[in-house]
Structures
1.
Amino acid sequence: MTELNRPNINIGKHLKEYVVTYVFLILSVIFIIVSGRPMNDILFQIMSRLVRNLFIVLSLIIPIITGMGINFAITIGAMAAQVGMLLAINWSLTGIAGILVSALITVPLASAFGFLIGSLLNKMKGQETIGSLILGYFANGAYQLLFLFVFGMIIPLSEKVTIVGATGVRNTLDLTINKLQGAIDGVLRIHFSTALYIVSGIILVGAIILFVTKRMSSRRFYTLGGLTVLFLIIYHLPFVQPSFANVHVPVVTFVLVGLLCLFNAGIMKTRLGQQFRAVGQSRTVANSAGINVNRVRLIAIMLSTVLAGWGQIIFIQNLGTLQTYSAHEMVGLYAGAAILVGGASINRATNGQAIIGCLLFHTLFVVAQDAGTVMFGNPVVGEYFRVFLCYGVIAVALVMHTWRSHTAKKKMSALQA
Amino acid sequence: MIPISEYVLEMNHISKQYGDNQVLSDVSLKVRPGEIHALLGENGAGKSTLMNILFGMPVITETGGFQGEVLIDGQEVHIKSPHQAIEHGIGMVHQEFMLIPGFSVTENIKLNREISKPNLVSRLLGHDLEVLDSATMEQDARQALDKIGIAISEAEKIRNLPVGYMQFVEIAREIDKSGIKLLVFDEPTAVLTESEADILIGVMQALADEGIGIIFITHRLAEVMKATQGVTVLRDGKLAAHRETSQTTLSELAALMVGRGGADQIDDNSRDFPEDAPRAMVIRDLYVDMPGEAVRGLNLSVFEGEILGIGGLAGQGKIGIPNGIMGIYPAEGHVELFGEPLPLNDSRGSLKRGLAMVSEDRRGVGLLLDQSIEDNIVFSAMQVNGDFLGAAPFRLKNAREIRQTADQMMKELDVRATSPLQPVGTLSGGNQQKVCIARALALKPRFLFVSEPTRGIDIGAKKLVIDTLLKLNRELNLTIVMVSSELLELKSICDRIAIVTEGKVSAILKPSDSNENFGLAMSGIAVEGGN
């Protein structure tokens, strides 16, 4: 998973692989400068968007490694989570209890949906990306039927969540009433500088221990240590520190994100992870080694769907309102675009790519409108640009994948050798 | 008396049919422990079916099983799945490498047999969540590699290895499995250079010395003579012969393999062309990147007005030749057509210069199955030459002209159909093939490639197709190059037959040459040509 840390990085190849990432980086810098927004405002916005989205983006990694492309059907996991939240609100559960109940309800629902999605995708191998995208749209119809008709008419709900004088669930559910808003984020918030010191401290101490016990190469130790110290120094530059004045870090949310990163990395070191990777690289070989390919793919999609559901709970508690009929709509697309921006492809992805991608994608999101206003005198242009980027990056990733696998085919020179 | 376990494997009186098609009848194969036993046969002789039975592949179990008995160490066994085969100690080194390029050598050797340590989570949720024990896995892999004496790093990724070494990783994987008794090598030397093949044979001998029985499927007879103790030859699904290697000769094996029918049983229609006769096509140093049928530096000349046959075993590149020259698969090299250079990788250009091809992939490349017979016949000519179109600027299809041509072609080639409007998908294989030929002829070609023209059509139709080709050649003086796996067919109409092995021409023979010579040529051994 750590392709980046290979000692012999070929710069040209690296640039080629991460061209999308660098384009986004350059665009972000230009847009930040053009937009003229105060830096501390931008950073505040970026932080809150990272909190909201990171978990969902990370839930895409396992299916990518299993060779199933970008699981746009995480939208369905989000729907499962919304059912859970609706019930929690309906039962007047508050705070952490409400969140836990929603998360628990999400597990069987999202697993079941994941099973169905996986079964279908197993029947359309090679077209999983488009298949999961369409499945998401299809499920949206079923979701509307459920929320507009089944809830209220067949499954009774309290008046708190239904449309008064009609059937169906309300358009917007306010989470502040049940103290669900910020139920996870609000447990413990610390200032960015505190968080930075703590994280740097942990990294440095950990690295030293690993280095002394010879479980880390000196090269890696110096890179890691050097980078950490560099970040600390940059942070203390006079014009940097004030930009972070408004930035607070919700500790529990980030711990959850960290746990998911560990989970993604850890599961790859197990038998199951080895099966994910084997199936992702060659279904034929995996099958001939006696691996039940369809089962492995099913597990990957189920895991991803459940994780995305939990991600959606984090997203909604951060926002504070549940837009019943639209909160899930763009989940798959935005998360997919974000991970692709980070340099993932539809058959390779890492935690780092997901995090960097999420950061860049949402930076551009934050500043695009203002940049549009400054450059064209019209905020709508920035909005168009945002949408263009989102779909554009997905299209580019799909085209580049086809193109790469085409050129990677045996060259004529290989025959003549 | 003979001890019970004289043979590690006995397959007795094996018969198998797919529907009405008898692919194996009463075949037996016996392998002693520590013996390298060659399994020889042309394509379609039944080698793969026999091995599929041994491994309990789904293709056998799902089609009604087989007759006969399989004994391992003298005990009758019923192998129903590849997994059971592994449990009985049978391993396979595949022809197509079953390796994952992005995995290390260790990971490939241990694929799905990983060594792992239990932990808290795995005790709860099953052993799939056990963490891999990389150190022990690497030790095991190292041991297996050392055993076959291959000095590659167990941590290297497969994609960084030279092709020749991948074979050894496959072998290491098989011998790493505990209790391996019998190893099947499926054409292991096909992709290896000569020195690599020597190393491989050394490894096989070392394994045999440890008492492992080895079935060696190959077409290289020289290797059979060098490495094996016993030989079983299959032909047309029957046991052609069983020999001790020490009591047979290269020529006898070659004859046994090709065998069927003496040269006297076919009508020899061949004519002699003088060495300085005008050339219709000259191919120099042709490379074609067709998966499974690669051509590697082939040279060949075709005389004007002759029928040249191209034969050889499947996978040796004979089908790559027409596909490369017609621009269907990427090609490199020099080709001259009637003295003019022919640009490669340009299908339209090839067609425009008077080349036409009847493809081996009739239903995939050759025909538009939902379209009518007449549309199929004129399609290429309309697209390439602009024939059968009305006056400019609209250039609509000229229905009358199309119907005339279609009627005429259908009559000449005896296409049996209700009308020229019948969709070709509803025709029988033989009639579809005739429509393919009609379509090639509608282009008014000067040079025709015919690839596997009789594949998948019944015997009566075969004869008609062959006769049609002969008639076209004799009456229109059309130069024809016919690629076919059916040697008999080639012998019946060709003037010369080029045998292709490993992407090159290994010999050019006359139809009257002996089976022995054809057999030797197919195993890549140079023989004196007939002319």
2.
Amino acid sequence: MTPPGHSEPSADVEPRLRADTVTLAYDGRTVSTDLSVSIPSGRFTVILGPNACGKTTLLRALARLLNPHGGQVVLDGKDIRRYPTKEVARRLGLLPQSSFAPFGISVADLVARGRFPHQRALQQWSQADDVAVTHAMQVTNVTELAERSVDELSGGQRQRVWLAMVLAQETPLLLLDEPTTFLDIAHQLEVLELCRRLNRHDGRTLVLVLHDLNQAARYADHIIVMRDGAIVAEGAPHAVLTPTMLAEVFGLQAHIMADPITGTPLVIPIGSLSSR
Amino acid sequence: MSLDAVGSGDVRARTTLRGARVMRLGPVSLLVRTRALLTTLVLLGLVAVLAAYALSVGTFRLHVAEVVQILLGNGGGVGERIVMNIRLPRVLTGVFAGAALGASGAVFQSVSRNALGSPDVIGFTTGAATGAIAQIVIFGGSAVAVALSAVVTGLFTAAVVYLLASKGGRTGYRLILIGIGVGSILGALNGLMLVRGDLDDAISANLWLAGSLNARTWVHVWPVLVGVVVLVPLVAVLSRRLSMIEMGDDVARQLGVRVERTRLSAVFLAVLLAALATAAAGPIAFVALAAPQLYGRLARMSDLAVFGSASMGALLLIVADLTSQLLPLGLTLPIGRMTGIIGGIYLIWLLTRPRSV
């Protein structure tokens, strides 16, 4: 057993996923212009930023849900648009903020749908599918719920089921858009711990959009801070989370100290600068 | 009853998915939901039995055994002519129109993520009726021309609703509300044509509008039969991808589904099916709405079930037809009205249930 301690991933590994000077627009409204970003391989990356700063847009572009107007997203050395759609889905999984569980679907059936990119019309189920679904349910702790209908579950359980679905996809890259929203604090930590295990033990590259600065500081190896569609800071938590940055980006007056438990930066908010 | 008769040994394997088996044949592996398969087979069996019975009832009574003999080609005389020229076209029109409506409804409920998403609720059937009535009242066209007009205006209505609904993001409710709006306008137009038209034409248009299996000939059977045989399997091929889209466009896209292309193809096929059914039997309410729901509840299926919904649609229509023929009211209730009455009750039940719409 490897200890759960920090096995420092080599920082110089060629990033598997990056955006090269992309221009991103929604409904004719430009969100980001000439944005470039690299997702460090094998790391736990968190994207932070105030509401409507383009975090979700960037995530969607990285997963090819949104085509950039200019520039390109590069996955494993090749323009992401040049892959067959299912090939992208075997390399990269994304859990969006909103998703619908079909009426009456069971947990196991929903998780099994994550196997779609590995299946074909006449190859609908393999041994590997079975193993992946079983494993994904175990890891997310929903095996007990396998037969239950997703509609009956609590918010926390449901979020774990959706995570299990993306995990069953077995992609080396995982992008999660606000996976902790609507969860109480204990369930939030549970999801983040799970993400950390996926990163440290399975070596998966994770990118999470989060709102909680302290959770980001505690779990991320790498933080990307966005404002108005641009990246304003990026790096290790202690380098990025500074009073100046918080004031500039979030309009937040804050004190920063070392977290007495983990030693990571702990943000103590003092007040909002914009309301003064 | 189990699937043991189907194969043996390691051809079938259990999976982590309860109630599902994998059938392997060489490189092919199919995920089979045992309960869904059995439900479909039972429904098809019932359709066959009731169809044979329907061929035997009428003023000229025949025994079911005689009917079977006639169908096997061992008949003759008046019985054969009645069965082959009058009753068989009627029954087949009903069965295939029902199947087309069931499959069509399944697609629309999936695309709109709503139990109310059905071609008769969102105006496509009314649109098909507009073409048919115009053809009857204004142009006095033949049965083939009526069918063709119904298909064309049905597709046109669907295109208009789809385009209007896709402005500003297509949500299930948007599609349904716009469909209801467009359907109301076309309904008024239909009424207007009936009032303005020649009395005889208006009466025959009105009969058609009531939805009827009376006086069906082979001309009515062929288009819908071929449509079902060709289009339903095509829809079935798309059904796995449509099921993925039910989880949300982004979820489906990230799983490798081409969402827009899949949805557009499926809606096109479903409109075609609904229009062919309407052309053959008039606007028949409720079947497209109820068949997928009833099948889903019986088979406990959460995936889009095209063949199952089609079988259920066929069964519903043949039951409605038999009921309207056998009701001791001394009046032959047009089948469209029959399904409308049952459908209204079903709809109220559906709407008053929490969490189902």
3.
Amino acid sequence: MPPPLKIANASGFWGDQPDAAARLVAAQPDLGFLTLDYLAEVSLSIMAIMRSKDPSAGYARDFVDVVRSLCPFWSAGGATRVVTNAGGLDPDACARECAGVLRAAGLSRLKVAAVGGDDVLPVLGSATGGFANLETGALLSTVAPRLVTANAYLGAGAIADALRAGADVVITGRVADPSLTVGPCIAHFGWSPADFGPIAGATVAGHLIECGTQACGGFSTDWLDLPDNLSIGFPIVEVSADGSCVVTKAAGTGGAVTAQTVKEQLLYEIGDPGNYLSPDAAVSFLTLRVEPAGADRVRVSGATGRAPTDSYKVSATYRDGYKAHGMVTIFGHDAVKKARRAGEGVLLRLQGAGCLYREHLIECLGTGASVRGIASRMSDTQLVETVLRVSVAADSREPVERFAKEIAPLVTCGPQGVTGYAAGRPRVLPIFGFWPTLVSRSAVSPTFRILDGTRP
Amino acid sequence: MIPLREIAFARSGDKGSSANVAVFGRTPEAYRWLRDHLTEGAVEAHFRPLGVGRVTRYDVPNLEALNFVLTDVLAGGGSRSLRVDSQGKALGMALLELQVDFQPKK
């Protein structure tokens, strides 16, 4: 058996710790790969808005800084390769920028690849039928003119191809999150696309690390009791040729890798655990074994895989109006009663001004408002302080902009004890509807391209 | 009665306007209790104030876990929901507040 392939995750989302990658390779220079995930369900629509203002902003620019931070490691002989979906809507532009950073650092020998083919907006845009919403069954025609993005979740194939062609940094747009890990495994172990058993195992490994420190105690039920929970390590999977893995983290980092932290992450954002659908395999988690394998080491084995479906999942987004949230703190006796009254006053004033909203909400944070009506342990009258949070949504921007101007006046016309308003006026946010659907594999052609690092 | 968190741990996450809440027994005995008592109906009733739709339970005995999928519990989810917890991050903790009648065997 060849030795396991060590793959770490250094970013669980767009906005995660910027120095995680550099710290990982410093602590564990023998890593085969770093994977970095930047794309949540509606991230691409945010990139689309950014790109409409700045054509070069269609990808996660944070990743370029990550590449810069790794240059000293590579210059000193480090060989860890990188796979990321930071390319967003424009993997080519991201790859060009990264290649430029490498060139400037004297690292032209490193090859950067861009993986594309996930953009299916033209396919949906020209469709005369089909592409119903997987959640609601609604017809695409109800939102078609407002579509902003439509991207297929590609699999590991093009990533593995790029790595086999010698890429050191692979930058994709939308791919299934676990495929960032499966791609390196396919290239390293020489699996065929039909090796569904090992691919299922690697998919589980990729799923385990795709959310950064969440596999090592981040976001865990017993977070407060973890050792050194202020510097939780990013996860590392040591994947074997049969697809099983050991989950661990770099020595000297905080948090813990235990059966508990691993099990929590295994079922994070999972529907039917017997039928986890990735573009690389349909995976059952019902045969998994999770066993301790030393300090901060947990072995995960036994995944079973079948052929994937003949379609790709698509994440499309469409414009769906605007919203804003305004917050002020209210301190004093009857704080919650005052907050509610003040919030209603804001909405009444706007109604009087002729503003119409399709939805509004008043929340008094501190009262259990995150899950209103569930599990509140004390009565509102016992609270001496609350954060009033008022939200509105409308089809057009104007009434939401007007709302944003009506929060600050509470400082002088609301109850005594209104405070904590220093953040200024609320921001008006575009709302993006999420449109999950399916596209036939035959309509999608994943591709990769290696940039020549020697020339601009 | 004790809060569920004493015998279980949990993890919640979002998928569009739906969410899942996985619940794990802290001991084999606790898992068996969950399996026998934490029904779809009990979870649906707990989350009814949030306007939850259909609740589906998946048993995961190899992880000593139950996975509940809560449809339409996020009032639109991610970008659209006006709620402070638009992505269901608090739902796991909310389920662990459930008061349960668990009697450990002596």
